[in-house]
Amino acid sequence: MASSLSVDFSYSSYSSTSRLLPFQWQKTLTLTRRRSATVRPPPRSSFACSPVAMSANTSAKIIDGKLIAKQIREEIAGEVASMKNEIGIVPGLAVILVGSRKDSQTYVRNKKKACEAVGIMSYEVNLPGDSTEEEVLKHISGFNSDPSVHGILVQLPLPRHMNEENILNSISIEKDVDGFHPLNIGRLAMQGRDPLFIPCTPKGCMELLHRYGVEIKGKRAVVIGRSNIVGMPAALLLQRENAAISMVHSYTKNPEEITRQADIVISAVGVANLVRGSWLKPGAVVIDVGINPINDAEDPRGYRLVGDVCYEEACEVASAVTPVPGGVGPMTIAMLLSNTLSSAKRIHKVE
């Protein structure tokens, strides 16, 4: 039986996407829950995922980010072990955390666990929130010159008194595993150039499309959100694979009409349930980057996490959709590990 729940779409401190991907839309609506018994995840018995056909239906394939991330971690662990055995090198990732935000501490802890699980060395610096920008830059300089460190990540957001641009720009481009250095982004934007690293979340979105056999060339793609972290690099990656790109943002007129033309939709705005089923073209493939909490009295925590896309409605229209949680989220850390391994292989000239 369907039940109704009032949903407040204002920004929340729980939402990592809303902090990183500023968007101005705020809405309130009633969300209807439905049972989706016809929705089935891909088989877990093999690494190969069946291709997604872009055809109209009412039973979406679930794009299982947890499964794909697990496969990628296993692949990375094998390569890390081979590198250690063959040349005695272990990839190393350094993470700098400034302040005591609970969510940032959780992200850093998860990254450390992920490194340990695949055999990557993890280096961590924890600085108080009132540290100076010079202290952060000093640690970055040390990691830049440390041959055992192949990737450097500064956990965002930084305290307000710090210049984020200066700090990110100080990371050696050869160790910029987050892919935020302007030279990496510039190379991504230029034809005939390749960045050393691709930002992890957009890279994870593309990896999901690839591993599920989604055809990109010649398709219409809409990216909702234009942040430097997700939206803009995601659009550039789709364009590199010869999709026809449109971007929707807070100043876009008729966003629903534009989105409905897309064969592929990537939403990264941090606004809960913004994209309704009516926004989607039948048979579209939907990648939902949003992670947003909404009040839910039935959940022991008092809230639950949802994406930017109204999931149950999308399952009735799309050919494939990522769940939240369990979709893009696990892929981001997997791509961070992948970038760190790639950095170590490049620095030590390992094929």
Automatic annotation (TrEMBL):
Keyword tags: Hydrolase, Multifunctional enzyme, NADP, One-carbon metabolism, Oxidoreductase, Photorespiration
GO molecular function: methenyltetrahydrofolate cyclohydrolase activity; methylenetetrahydrofolate dehydrogenase (NADP+) activity
UniProt xrefs under PROSITE patterns: THF_DHG_CYH_2
Chain ranges of the Tetrahydrofolate dehydrogenase/cyclohydrolase NAD(P)-binding domain: 199-346
Pathways per UniProt: One-carbon metabolism; tetrahydrofolate interconversion
CDD domains tied to this protein: NAD_bind_m-THF_DH_Cyclohyd
Reaction(s) this enzyme catalyzes, per UniProt: (6R)-5,10-methylene-5,6,7,8-tetrahydrofolate + NADP(+) = (6R)-5,10-methenyltetrahydrofolate + NADPH; (6R)-5,10-methenyltetrahydrofolate + H2O = (6R)-10-formyltetrahydrofolate + H(+)
Positions of the Tetrahydrofolate dehydrogenase/cyclohydrolase catalytic domain: 63-178
Entry superkingdom: Eukaryota
One Gene Ontology term, aspect cellular component: cytosol
Pfam families with a match to the protein in the record: THF_DHG_CYH (PF00763), THF_DHG_CYH_C (PF02882)
GO BP term (any one): photorespiration
Gene3D superfamilies recorded: Leucine Dehydrogenase, chain A, domain 1, NAD(P)-binding Rossmann-like Domain
Function: Catalyzes the oxidation of 5,10-methylenetetrahydrofolate to 5,10-methenyltetrahydrofolate and then the hydrolysis of 5,10-methenyltetrahydrofolate to 10-formyltetrahydrofolate.
Assembly with partners or alone: Homodimer.
HAMAP family linked to this entry: THF_DHG_CYH
Protein name: Bifunctional protein FolD 4, chloroplastic
